[in-house]
Amino acid sequence: MNLDVQRLCARLAAAPPIFQTKLALTEPRGVHVDAVVADLSLARADRALDVAELGSFAPSSGDRGVLRHLELVLVASWLLYDDAFAGLSAARLFTLLDERLRALSALVVPRACIEDAERREELVRVALAALGLAPAGEEPAFAEDRLAALDSVRRQALLRDAKAREQERAARRAELEALKRQEEEEARKAARTTFED
Amino acid sequence: MRQGAWDGLRRVLEHPHAPRYNQTLGDRVGERELEALAAFREVMRVRPREAAREPSSGTVRFVEALRERLFSLDALPLGFDVARDFEELPTTCRDDLARRLEDLVPRDAKLAEAIVYSTSATTGHAVIVPSHPSAMVQNLAHLEAAAAAHGVALTHAEGVPFALNATVQRETYVFATTMSGWSGAVFAKVNLAEHGWAGGAGSRRRFLEEFAPAFVASEPVTLAEAIALELPLAPKVVVSSAVHLSAAHAALITRAWGTKLVDLYSTTETGPIGVTVPGVEGHVVLVPDLFVEALDEHGGRVPDGARGELTVTGGRNPYLPLVRYRTGDHGRLGTVITPDGRPARVILDLEGRTPVAFVGARGERIGSVDIARLLRPIAAFVQHALHQRADGSLELRLRPLPGVPLPRADFEDALRSLFGRDARLEVVIDGMLGNANGKVVAWRCDVTRAGARPATQ
Predict the structure, then answer these.
(1) pLDDT tens for residues A7-40?
(2) Is the ipTM here above 0.95?
(3) Which residue in chain B has the smallest CA separation from A151?
(4) What's the CA gap between B254 and B216, in Å, rounded?
(5) Separation CA A14–CA B16 (nearest Å)
(6) B298/A190 CB distance under 8 A
(7) What domains are defined for chain B?
(8) Comparing C-alpha atoms, which of B181, B127, B133 is closest to residue B154?
(9) What pTM does this model have?
(10) What end-to-end distance do the CA atoms of chain B give, in Å?
(11) Which secondary structure element, helix H or strand E, spans residue B294, and what is its range?
(12) Which residues in A lie closer than 8 A to residue B104 (C-beta atoms)?
């Protein structure tokens, strides 16, 4: 078993349904992500994560953003259960699951990391980079470039039209404000012509 | 406007007992809008309704088509698949109309043809809802289907008085026009308050007698007033909307006027959502292009039968296509088979606006939904307003149905069973409740939440 990106992507694509669970606070019998992460750290890291660390993976609220982060942690846990990840640094594992995936979950739907080829590769490369591991059979420069490409695709998509978009929004806002003022003026006129005893 | 329609309208406008008109409005319905109406009649007739918990492919396509057109959707996460990730779609609400309407109106929609409605956000800010005559006229197809479900076929003719929108308010638009979507029949919006008529109550009676609307649209307070005044109305169908209509009130109206009664759930932002249908409990979503969900406070979909905020996707307004729009109203969802043999979603226990929390004697939270459940079976009333003041004392105002006495002591006992035996409370029977401007704040609590412990007597 090695850290071949294609093999790890294939593993993600074959994630069992339980790792694709849609989390909800109202499902007390649902998956406990903190327990999954505890088992993962026992099985693959150089030490078990402690209670305080595991607290990051228990839902603090039913907010979809919070739950989406945990859903992505669940997907990543399936990936990291792979034998090739044996002997992980627990500190790096925690940083990946807590910080890196929290940020990623704001931009990527967790299930896309199973179902879409590009997002699978992005999760694999993000995980390897955060864990300080090199993809098998790749020059470091190539691995860095590839991760940057996947990241930059997103960054560019978000930034590409940001300025033009804001200008267009502002113009639209002004148009709608004018419509509102016109409506208010008509309502005022109507009020003046309303008869009342 | 065709000559026949204009002749009929002129007779209503120049009627010697006409109300005090204060507006001149047309329906802005032309050929294009009539085509849209005809098309939507067909949609109502043949398109399968959204009858499942998950959106149909039609609703998914509706949202997909908006991804490039709405600012609110252009930052969806990478890999977002509308069918798979529907529940991840951001929700919107009425306050978004006030704060960021530009994100909800398609960026390519030309505003020149917009007609504008005003409503108020929960923050109290006025908001506008842009719409289009074609969206408005299509609502007629929904009313026709609702009437048909009650066994009423709407037959209208050019220039003939047909539809009346009645209200009782201090001031309101009063006008008459023709309805191009209904053969050019005449429509009048009137204020039933006596000051709305130059000739007072006598003119009101004479005008209504001669107008003889087959179709009346109104709300419960006005309908109660109209019956109390024994106005000469005998429509084939009455559509009541805006606030809750009790079964007893509905029965009173149908008896008094020998009419069919449709309770319509509709909002300015969404258009019609549901109607009552004979033999089915609740409000049935007859429009096939509206997907309704019930959500919890975090935006997650609650199971069928559980109470949640009614949230809609779809509709026909080109200026405000709805994508998970949270109505602020609550209810429970289920699926039923309507009398026409087709499945549909149904809204049970529809409760307007977000539930309000009151404070009990020991500082505990008492929800408006629970209070409503306790009060409604005691006796039928038109409207209520429960106000808990900052000191914890309570005032319940009730507007009675004409001829239906209200047992004040029973209402007091019910409130004491929730708020404690020593609660300071007063029940006021108020025949004028809602008359000031037609709007009643049904639930209001001024007690500060932290450490709340209202005073007792």
Answers:
(1) 999 999 999 998 988 887 666 567 899 999 999 9
(2) no
(3) B78
(4) 12
(5) 80
(6) no
(7) 3-95+134-351 (3.40.50), 357-445 (3.30.300)
(8) B181
(9) 0.81
(10) 66
(11) strand B290-295
(12) none
